[in-house]
Specification:
Layout lengths: L3 E3 L4 E4 L9 E3 L3 E3 L4 E6 L5 E8 L6 E5 L2 E2 L5 E2 L2 E8 L7 E7 L6
Parallel strand pairs: 1-4, 2-5
Antiparallel strand pairs: 2-3, 3-11, 5-6, 6-7, 7-10, 8-9, 10-11
Length: 107
C-alpha cells in the first residue's frame, strides 16, 4: 500500500534546474492536493524555491507560482507563474507537466 502525502507544504521534484514547457514535476507518494498549497520546488541541481500550487479557474489545469531563486550554477531565475497539467491523476505518485509560462503580471 502506498504512502499518502498531503502536498500542502511538501516538495515537488523538478526534472531540470529550471522550468520550461514540457518539464516535469513529481510529488512524493500519493497526494491529496490542498487548493492553494504551499510547496517547495527542488530542482535537478538541488537548488530550490518556494511556490504556491493552485487550480486554474474554469479549466483542469493547475497554476504554479514559483519564487525567484538561484541555480547551482549561479543563474538568477526570476519569479514566474507556470500552467501545469496533472498527468494520470489518481495513478500513484502525482506528476505534473509544464504546459506554458503565464505572462508576467503588470505592476
Amino acid at each position: 500500500m502506498g504512502q499518502t502525502t498531503n502536498v500542502d507544504g511538501v516538495l515537488l521534484h523538478a526534472s531540470h534546474s529550471h522550468l520550461f514547457r514540457g518539464a516535469r514535476l513529481r510529488a512524493p507518494g500519493t497526494a491529496h492536493f490542498a487548493d492553494p498549497a504551499d510547496v517547495r520546488v527542488v530542482f535537478a541541481d538541488f537548488s530550490d524555491a518556494g511556490a504556491e500550487l493552485r487550480r486554474a479557474e474554469g479549466t483542469p489545469a493547475w497554476m504554479l507560482s514559483v519564487e525567484s531563486y538561484r541555480t547551482a550554477a549561479g543563474t538568477e531565475i526570476p519569479a514566474r507563474v507556470w500552467e501545469l497539467e496533472l498527468m494520470a491523476p489518481g495513478a500513484g505518485a502525482p506528476e505534473f507537466k509544464v504546459l506554458t509560462r503565464r505572462p508576467d503580471p503588470v505592476l
